[in-house]
Amino acid sequence: MTGTVVSSRSALATITLPTSLLATDHLVALITAISPPYQTTINLTNNKNDTFSLTIGPDTLTHRNSILRHLCGIGLQNALDSVGSSPLLFLGGHAATSFAGASPQSALAMAGTSSWMSVASSIRDNHDGGGSMESVSKLLHQLNGYLSTKSFLVNSPEPTLADLDLYLAIVSKVSSGEKLDTMVGKENVHTRRWLEQCGATLEELHLVALKKLQYSKSKITTLPTLPEGLSPKARALPVFCYGDDDEVVASAAASTPANTASSSTANKENGSSVASKPVGEPKQGGGPGVELTEEQKKAAAEKRAKKAAGKAKAKEGADANKGAAAATAPDTALNVSALDIRVGKIVKAWEHESSDKLFCEEVDVGEEKPRLIASGLRAFYKLDEMQNRSVLVLCNLKARSLGGFPSHGMVLCASNADHTAVEFAVPPEGAKIGERVCFEGYVGEPEPENKIAKKKMFDALAPDLKTDGNGEVVWKGAKGLTSAGVCKAINGMANAHVS
Asked: For the whole model, what pTM was predicted?
């Protein structure tokens, strides 16, 4: 071994923790209590002049968020961010890749964690008004759009430091779970699911930390009581299911050098689960490089044959009853009554910070609070022309991100064939905000958002949503009406498409 330099991968750290911070900062208390007892020395201090700090070797950190990330990640050799050695993924499994070379995805996730923790800090410290009830309420609404396509704030199969820190900052600002429930509202289902999951995870961590304190020689003897959040509720169906968005991260974490065993992690949200298979485990029925036994092949063939026979029998029965069902079934042809078009008012508008085509708007459509909607109208309207504008809003569209902005709905406009001329479709003067626009001869309740999206109903109905020769909004010639009269293009654009 002559000439070989051997370096230790162990890390020893000293944490200086004021008792005042221990009593008030739940995340600091939990992470400190869970930190490996043989790698960390905790110095509790009552001195008001002492600050929260972490010393590792010659370096001392004093910034709270940086200390927490070091305790969970590379500072202590990823002790709290490794599937193989711990069930905790405080950095989503991304810090563990540092030994093998961080991937771009992990680098983005780590940067995202830092950014979200900064948002949490702005709420706690009320920086630039970030801790006001108005700002917190707006954030809860914006999170709903952001979380509509992901489980947590950064790609991870479990809640990370970012999730737990932001959650604690929010619920600590809100005085009670009942008040939080009201602020979230029924429509923000993704925010609600996230809040419930983070709260449940923190309760589990609290129990783990208390047990560790009982058996370690830590100077910490108690932990602050967690603030009241939302009580998880059973759901008949998952809030969302987008497939393998977090499975990729889980698989990457499972393949790090620290983990040689199989990995299986799942999102602990009601009705939605994303799990990563153990490394090297074949898919059901075999896969590339996997040789099945003769018995397995035979069983698989029998299963396929049975399934095919069942499908054929079901189809035969369906064909036999098709004529009778058609004769007795009610008229369920898709029509414009499936759309929830309402009278709205733009109460606030501003230019999108990174898109030169989009306006961002808060639109009152008669709900508890205004909707956030993005519209590509900057080429056709000035900002001051957007303010306090009465408009028609298609409300039963799923929330989606437009340029990073959570948009939930569509402000309807009339446009010519090549989209060089665009003008608002508007309700008649005197129409009530939130009133639904109905079309002559078509009666029915609007379809839910998920069905509109899944069945592509708007795509099917949109070609017939137009203005007639008088500039009035029609669907297949039937006029769009409110209690105050007919809706129209604001400048009377005739024979135009409305969308």
From this structure: 0.47
